[in-house]
Structure formats: C-alpha cells, structure tokens
C-alpha cells in the first residue's frame, strides 16, 4: 500500500502500551503504517473470534481476507481505501457500515457479518505512526436497516467532511444502530413473553383436563404434569401439550 512504511519496534511499543486501549469495552485494533496488526484488545478478539496471538504481526488483509464465495465482496477494497484516506489526510474516517465476512476458524466457512468501523490516526510527537480501528458489530440489524445505512454511506462518500460533521455522523449511526438493536432485543423479549403466556395457557388447560378425568385437585394435577416432565426430561409445556392431544383424540 502506497505510503505505508516498514514495521518499527518503537512504533509498535507506542501503539500497544495504552492500558485504556486494552481495558476498553469497545472493540479496537491497532495497525502500523505497513497495515500490520500491532495490537487487538480483548473486546476485538472476542468479536472477531481471533486471539491476539494469531493476529499480531499479520497484514490486516491477510488476517481478514475477502469471502471468496462472494463475488461482490468489497471489504478489503473499502477498508484499504479507508486506511489510505486516514494516512493521506490525518483525519478519522467513519466507514458508517461495511459488510465484511469472517471465516469460522473451525469449519473454514465464511460467516456473513456487518460492521460499523471507524479508522482514526495515531500520532506520536506530531508524527503519524498508525491507525486505531474502532468497530461495532452490526450483524444483528435487519436487512432493510442495513440497506438504509449503506445508502447513507454511499451518499456521504466523496463529500468533504469536517471533524465536527464526523462527530455528528457518528452520533447518527450510533443512535440508529442502538435503536435498531434495542428494537430487536424488545422483539425477542415480546416473543419470549408470548411463548411463556402460551405455555401457561397450555399447562392450565392440561391441568383442567386432568382434574376432570382423574377427579383430582389443581395442585395434584400440576404435580402429575411436573412428575411426567421430570421423568421424561421434557419441558412442562410440551408434556401438557402432548397430554391435551392424547386426551382429545381419545374422546
């Protein structure tokens, strides 16, 4: 990559010596002027499924190549262009959204992933020495939300953006991704609540049928269901549903 100098041990020490970097809950990696990975904090290694030992000293694009099964993969090209912009301008580059699939280390197959990457310059004594990448996993977002963010990214590409505008863009992206993520979390909670209510209704129905057929109390009917669940290692609601089916088909 043009303009990217060789590996330097002093630079590496400066890049990796920040305790706040290592302790941050935000996923971050540090790259030298040669695009070699110099450091990755625990949040980054957890998010990417790579250990720091396997990443450090690798070229960024060797560590994270494009998905060979996706002919439209542009993660390497876009990330390389972002690095170039940072080194040329000395200004942070907010990529907004980027599909960048990652290989599963166990199977070797690539898994589709979407990210919100920000590449920022690292200076030492006024000299540019590397890039700090901050990244957020946006894979949880729905396809329509990803399309909106990609459109926003494409609209912003090629425009001259000040630092203040960059902060505004990041605030918009954060609000959008956080809002969608919270919506998905709420959606999951609602689904769990619906399942719980349906399970409760099924159990109550099974209890009622047992009370009639066995002439027992509600507590006795419940204990019978619970005993069947424990003996068969099957969920209580599933036992209740099976019992309802059996009693209904027997009549």
Explain what you see:
The protein is of the alpha+beta class. The chain has ten helices and eight strands. Strands 1, 2, 3, 4, 7 and 8 form a six-stranded antiparallel sheet that branches. It has a two-stranded antiparallel ribbon with strand order 5-6. Helix 8 (163-214) packs across helix 9 (218-232), helix 8 (163-214) packs across helix 10 and helix 9 (218-232) packs across helix 10 (236-250). The protein starts with 8 loop residues before the first helix and ends with a helix. The model is unreliable at 1-7 (pLDDT under 50).
Helix-strand blueprint:
Elements: H1 9-16, H2 19-23, E1 27-32, E2 37-40, H3 42-48, H4 52-55, H5 60-63, H6 75-89, E3 93-94, E4 98-99, E5 102-103, E6 110-111, E7 114-124, E8 127-137, H7 143-156, H8 163-214, H9 218-232, H10 236-250
Antiparallel strand pairs: 1-2, 1-8, 3-7, 4-7, 5-6, 7-8
Helix pairs in contact: 8-9, 8-10, 9-10
How many E strands? 8
Morphology call: elongated
Mean model confidence by pLDDT: 80
Structural class: alpha+beta
Uncertain stretches? 1-7
Major beta sheet summary: 6 strands, antiparallel
Instruction: Kindly report how far apart the N and C termini lie.
Output: 77 Å
User: What percentage of residues falls in helices of 4 or more residues?
Assistant: 55-70%
**SS field, number of helical segments:** 10
C-alpha Rg, in Å? 27 Å
Task: Offer a quick outline of the entry.
55% of the residues lie in helices and 16% in strands.
């Amino acid at each position: 990559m043009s303009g990217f100098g060789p590996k330097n041990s002093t630079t590496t020490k400066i890049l990796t010596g920040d305790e706040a970097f290592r302790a941050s809950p935000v996923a971050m990696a540090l790259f030298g002027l040669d695009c070699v990975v110099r450091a990755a904090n625990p949040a980054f290694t957890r998010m990417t499924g790579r250990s720091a030992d396997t990443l450090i000293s690798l070229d960024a694009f060797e560590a994270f190549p494009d998905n060979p099964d996706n002919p439209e993969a542009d993660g390497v090209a876009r990330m390389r262009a972002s690095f170039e912009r940072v080194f040329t301008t000395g200004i942070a580059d907010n990529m907004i959204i980027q599909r960048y699939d990652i290989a599963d280390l166990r199977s070797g197959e690539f898994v589709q992933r979407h990210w919100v990457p920000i590449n920022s310059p690292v200076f030492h004594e006024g000299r540019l020495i590397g890039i700090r990448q901050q990244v957020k996993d946006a894979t949880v977002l729905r396809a329509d939300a990803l399309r909106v963010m990609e459109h926003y990214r494409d609209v912003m590409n090629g425009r001259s953006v000040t630092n203040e505008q960059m902060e505004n863009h990041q605030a918009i992206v954060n609000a959008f991704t956080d809002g969608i993520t919270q919506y998905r979390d709420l959606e999951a909670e609602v689904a769990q609540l619906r399942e719980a209510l349906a399970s409760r209704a099924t159990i109550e129905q099974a209890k009622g049928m047992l009370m009639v057929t066995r002439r027992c109390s509600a507590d006795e009917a419940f204990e019978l269901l619970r005993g069947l669940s424990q003996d068969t290692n099957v969920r209580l609601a599933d036992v209740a549903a099976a019992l309802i089916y059996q009693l209904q088909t027997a009549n």
